[in-house]
Amino acid sequence: MKIIQHYSKIFVAVAVVSFATQTAWAQDEEAKAPGKMEATIQLSYLKKTDQSKEASVNISATDNGKIVMAHNAHINFYLTDGANPVLLKSVVTNMQGKTTVDLPEVLPLDAERYFGIIARIENDSLYADAEEELWHKEAALSLDLQTQDSTKMAVAKLTETDAAGQVQPLVGKDVSFYVQRLFGIMPAAEEFTATTDEEGVASFVFPDSIPGDSEGNVTVVARISDDEDYGNLENKTSGKWGVVLAPEMNPFPRALWAPNAPPALIITLCVIFGGIWFTYGYVFNELRKIDQEKI
Amino acid sequence: MNQNHTIGTIKEDSLRPLRSWGRGTLIWIAILLATGTWGFYAYYYQLRHGLASTAMRDYVSWGLYISTFVFLIGLSHSGTLVSGILRITKQDWRMPITRTAELMTFVSLLFGGIMPIIDLGRPDHIFNLVLFGRVQSPLMWDVICIFTYFVGSTMFLYLPMIPDMALCRDRLKETSSSVRRWMYRKLALGWTGTKTQWRYLERSMTIMTIIIIPIAVSVHTVIGYIFAMTLRGGWNSTVFGPYFVAGALYSGSATVVLGMYAFRKIYHLEKYMTFKHFDLMGRIVLALTLIYAYFNLNEYWVPAYKMAIHERHLLTDLFSGEYARVFWILQFGTVLLPIIIMSFPKGRRPNILAATAVLVVFGAWLKRYIIVVPTQMHPFVPIQDVPADWATYFPSWVEFSVVTGAIAGILLVLTLYSKLFPIMSVWEVEEGAEIEETKRLAAEMRSNKKAVSEPVQANVL
After folding, report:
1. CA A225 – CA A207 distance, rounded (Å)
2. How far apart are alpha carbons B54 and B46 in whole angstroms?
3. pLDDT tens digits for range B257-284
4. Averaged over A156-185, what is the pLDDT?
5. How far apart are CA A132 and CA A127, in angstroms?
6. Does B198 touch chain A (CB under 8 A)?
7. B223, B71, B81, B84: which is closest to B146 by C-alpha?
8. Least CA distance to B388: which residue of chain A?
């Protein structure tokens, strides 16, 4: 009996220790359980040719030490004038971790005419809460294509409207000039940046050798990029400044991927495979003769 | 060996595996069926969830399926080589192994041919090739060549089977079911072995032997063209056609060795598939491995010397980067090591040769993977702005399951074939035994003559 009691005590002790240990480990596991991914938000603002405005985010996250694009992240955009932020829109990032929202025409401004945009990840199931904000002022970028003494000049003018409603030039800002190509914009020359003068004007000598379309049309793009005060501004204008690119009448002169196969190829294939299948037919006929020969 | 005894037992030895299905065979078939069913389920899953269930994405759109396709089409050269080339060069020793080789061709084409359809994601789109196919596309050439080769190989397998089908029809009456008897009767085409029937059969076989060799060469050349007709680094090569043919012959001949080894062991055909057969096949595999090694050297040495910008990243990845381990294991483990082993007579004995053939076949499959995948990971425009997992490729469980199911299918067809049809061409083996016996008698007569003439010469002297 004593032995049974003795072993019962040992059993209970082992069970208690084991339960306690397991509970402690389980708590550890819970603490170590894979949590949400840390996300980093890159927020930017762009004012486009048609004066519409947009805010974009590019979100990356850290997944087991690897940097990945944070797709399907729920992100809230807020506008603020320094006081309480107002929710503008909730959106979800695409496969590349990017998303864009259109901003209203009139933005809330603070005393110094700055507006604030806030992008937040809040209560997302995949990503930890994160926030990024930026503050910019509104500006206007115009672009004019002028020909002066047979020199092609792209003239960009950068201005802002002050509190009194007066248009003021912005001095000493870098404006970059590009040409629109099929998959994006390309710098128009090796040196493609000009600085605005006291009138807010930046002039750029457009090269003569830029290929245009079949009529010589080319789209010139002027751009302020990542300015501390004004963010990104862009203006595009088209003109017949490009070299006329004659359309290729026969884009595949002798390529195998041409729309129509060369007759020589068709004939060769027909002869080779026609010959092989004729031979097969002959052998089939011999088999038929074997079958007919049965006694 | 006594000739009558040999001739008498050849038929019986060939038909013995057909008379009963052992318990082991049934278990083996059940395992293969289960694996095949799993493969089917994986393919059903892929059809239901789309190609997103595989690891293939924008950059790697040809993964495990196309690697396996190229590999299996390569194996199909076994029949052409052993049966076609040895038949045309009148190598009498080929006779016990030709059926194995032809069967390997048939079965690897059967399963290799479906791999691109599986890779297509939407199998119904295959008809678009017929409806909208462009004759100038290498993919179209490939479809035409493989289909032509498949029909030719089936005929090439079937023709020498006709007299054996008649043998089965006549000798397996008691032990066969009515379905099997019907099948033998139909496949035998009323064969009675008349002179005229032999004439038709031999003429057909001669024609098919001649025609199947260029067709087989064209098939693998065209598969090489699928890659070589692009401008991609690693594929843009003028030697890809012959390189693929050499690779196919190298892996195909090793597959024949494996088939010989398995059938010899399972059906106790040691009398027919002798050490001599393994030694000669070993020499063939050795020669083809040397040719393949030479092509390998050319394929990598020439671009590596130039290191052109679009090839550089790929070659660096192969030689010292992400794929370096696999690449060097391939070169040393599955090319150089087999060469060394097979250079020695002991290395061409059945057990060692079969083990070496496993190395060669596995290496050939891995090599196809190394040809197909890394190039796609090195596009002309660098990979950017895509999810991180698109920049790598490792097959998903769906791809592994489908390919495993296909391999199980191959083994199942081989097993069923060997239980339904003689695995040796009985009449050819008998013919071979007769030729050998004639040679033996001629040699005996020569030695007797010599023995008789020697005392006469001694008397003259």
Report:
1. 22
2. 7
3. 999 999 999 999 998 999 999 999 999 9
4. 92
5. 14
6. no
7. B223
8. A68
Cβ-defined contact of A279 to B211 (cutoff 8 Å): yes
CA distance B216 to chain A (A): 12
Q: Which superfamily, per CATH, for A140-239?
A: Immunoglobulins (2.60.40.10)
Pairwise CB contact (< 8 Å): B148 & A273: yes
List of residues 6+ apart from B451 with CB closer than 8 A: none
The percent of residues in chain A predicted with pLDDT above 90, rounded, is: 63
| Pairwise CB contact (< 8 Å): A265 & B204 | no
Q: How far apart are CA B289 and CA B292, in angstroms?
A: 5
**Within an 8 Å CB–CB cutoff, is residue A254 touching chain B?**
no
A-B Cβ pairs (cutoff 8 Å, strict): 80
Residue with tokens 């884009």: A251
Of B144, B151, B200, which has the smallest distance from its Cβ to A280's Cβ?
Answer: B151
Cβ of residue B137 closer than 8 Å to a chain A Cβ: yes
What residues of B are in contact with residue A68 (Cβ under 8 Å)? 387-388
Q: pLDDT (tens digit, 9 = 90+) per residue, A57-93?
A: 999 998 877 788 888 999 999 999 988 899 999 999 9
H or E, element range at B180: helix B178-188
Structure token digits, residue A67: 């940097």
CB atoms B192 and A258 under 8 Å:
no
Query: Cβ contacts (< 8 Å) between A99 and chain B: which residues?
Result: none
Q: Which of A16-20, A116-120, B8-12, B310-314 is predicted most confidently?
A: A116-120
Do A261 and B134 count as a contact with CB atoms less than 8 A apart? yes
CATH code 2.60.40.10 region(s) in chain A:
140-239
ipTM: 0.88
Is residue B82 within 8 Å of B101, Cβ to Cβ? yes
* B4 pLDDT above the threshold of 60: no
- For residue A150, what is the DSSP state? T
Sort strands A114-121 and A130-137 into parallel, antiparallel or unpaired. antiparallel
Contact at 8 Å (CB) between B103 and B259? yes
pTM of the model: 0.72
Q: Which two tokens stand for residue B131?
A: 């409806």
CATH superfamily to which A38-137 belongs: SOR catalytic domain (2.60.40.730)
Q: Which of A198-207, B29-38, B382-391 has the lowest mean pLDDT?
A: B382-391
**Residue B118 structure tokens:** 């599986």
Q: Which residue ranges does chain A devote to CATH 2.60.40.730?
A: 38-137
Q: What average pLDDT does the segment B375-402 reach?
A: 87
